[in-house]
Amino acid sequence: MNKNAPMAENKMGVMPVGKLLLNMSFPMMMSMLVQALYNIVDSVFVAQINENALTAVSLAFPLQTLMIAIGGGTGVGVNALLSKSLGEKDYKKANKAAMNGVFLAGVSYLLFLLIGLFAVTPFYASQTKDVQIMEYGKQYMMIVCCLSFGLYTQLICERLLQSTGKTVYSMITQGLGAIINIILDPILIFGYFGFPEMGVAGAAVATVIGQIIGGIAGVILNVKKNTEIKLHIKGFRPDFKIIGSIYAVGLPSIIMQSIGSVMTYGMNQILMAFTSTAAAVFGVYFKLQSFIFMPVFGLNNGMIPIIAYNYGAGKRDRLLKAVKLSVIYATGIMCVGFLVFQLFPVQLFMLFEASETMLTIGVPALRIISFSFLLAGFCIIIGSVFQALGNGMYSMWVSLTRQLVVLLPVAWLLAKLGNVDYVWLSFPIAEIASLTMTIIFYIRINKEIISHIGKEQQHL
Questions:
Q1: Structure-derived torsion over alpha carbons of residues 263, 377, 428, 441, reported in degrees to the nearest 10
Q2: Fewest Cβ atoms closer than 10 Å to its Cβ: which of 407, 424, 436, 437?
C-alpha cells in the first residue's frame, strides 16, 4: 500500500483552501506559542541564579540566532523545493530534496561543533571582561553548540513533515522539545529531585535534551507517517544541483534571520547611550512581541508548502486564495496585538516586575512600536510568498532594508533629539518602508510568475 501512497493527490491540492490553511497552520501556531512561552520561562529561571547568569545567556543570543537561522533557513529551502516537487508529481526529486536536506543538517551540526570547541571563548571575550560572565557563557554555549545535533535533526524533520502537509506531527516534535525543556530547566538548574545543581550549565543541558528528544520524535514520525517521501541513506551522494536549488530559497532566509541579531545589537548600543533601563525595555518588548509574531510565523509555516505545492501543480486560483486568506488572518492577529499593547502596557510590564523607571520608558515604547504591527502582517505573509515561489531574494532585500538601511539609521538620528521616546518611532517608519518595497516586489512577481501559473498546462 505504501508504494501506491505517493500517487494519491496530496490534500494541499484538493482540500478547500480555507480549511486547508487552518488545518496546516493551526498546529504550527500552537507550537510557536509554546516556543514563545519557553523563551520567557527559560529567562526567568536563569535570572534566579544571578544577574551575571542572565547576562551570559543573553550574550549568547547572536550565536544562537545564527544556529537557528542556518537550520531554519535551510529548512525553508527544502520545504519549498520538496512541496513544489510533490505538486509536480516528481517524487524522485522530492526524495532527493529530503535526503540532501538531511545531509545539510549534518553539515550544519559539524560547523557548530567546531564553533563550540574553538570559538566560544573568543566570542565571549569580545563582549565582556567579567570573569564570571565569561565562565557562565562558556559553560552554556559549549554545551548548546557541541550537542546541537538534536536541534538540527529536529529542524529538518519538522520541515519534512510540513512539506507534505503533516503539520500536526511537526507540532508534536516542537511542542515535545519545548515542554521537556521547560520541565527540566528548574530541575537541572537548581538540583531538584536528587539531580545535581548545575546552574547555567543545567539550562544548557535542559535545552539540548529537549532538542534531542524532539529530534528523535521527528525521525520516528517521518519514518512511520511521512509516506510521501523515502529517506534512503544507503548509496546517498550529495546532489549539488539540488543543494543549489535549496539555498536559492534558503540562503536569503538565513541572511534575513541573521540580520535580526545585528539589528538587536545595534539598537542596544543606541539605547544604552540613554540608560541601561531603555535597553532592558527593548529586551522586554522582544519577549512580549513574540506572543504576537509567533502565531503569524506559524501561519507562514503552514502557508508556504500550500503555495509551493499549488505553484508546482499549476493551480493559480488555489494559490491566490491561500495568499488572500493568510493576509487576512495575519492582519487580524497583528491588530489584536496592537490593541493589547495599546490598552494594557502597564500590565504587560508588570509581568517582569518592572520599576517605575521602566514603566516610564516602556509604556510609550509599546504604544509607539505597536503601530508597526498594523502593517507587519501583510509584509510577513507576502515575504513568505516570495520564498515559496522560489524568489527568496525579494524577502531578503525587504528585511535588509527594513532593519539595517532604515530602522537603525533612523533610530540613531532620532536619538540625537535627546528623547528616547523618539527612538521608538523608527519601528513604524521602517515598517512603512517595508510595506512599500513589499508591494513593489509583489507586483513584479505577480507579473513574472503568478499570472503565468497554469497556462503552461493549458498549452500542453
A1: 80
A2: 436
Beta-carbon neighbour count of residue 398 at 10 Å? Answer: 25
Q: Counting beta carbons within 10 angstroms of the beta carbon of residue 353, is it exposed (0 to 12), middle (13 to 18) or buried (19 or more)?
A: exposed
Greatest CA separation for the chain: 71
- Over residues 2-22, the pLDDT tens digits come to 444 444 556 766 777 878 888
DSSP class of 9: P
CB 32, CB 311: distance < 8 Å: no
| Ramachandran sector of residue 128 (left: φ over 0; alpha: ψ -120 to 50; beta: rest) | beta
DSSP state of 352: T
Q: Where are the domains positioned within the chain? A: 20-238, 251-460
Q: What separation in angstroms does the CA of 286 have from each of 58, 64, 290, 389?
A: 12, 15, 6, 30
Kindly report the number of other CB atoms within 10 A of residue 404's CB atom: 15
Cell of 238: 550529495
Q: Report the predicted TM-score, pTM, of the whole model to 2 decimal places.
A: 0.71
- pLDDT tens-place string over residues 44-82: 787 778 767 776 777 777 788 888 889 988 988 888 888
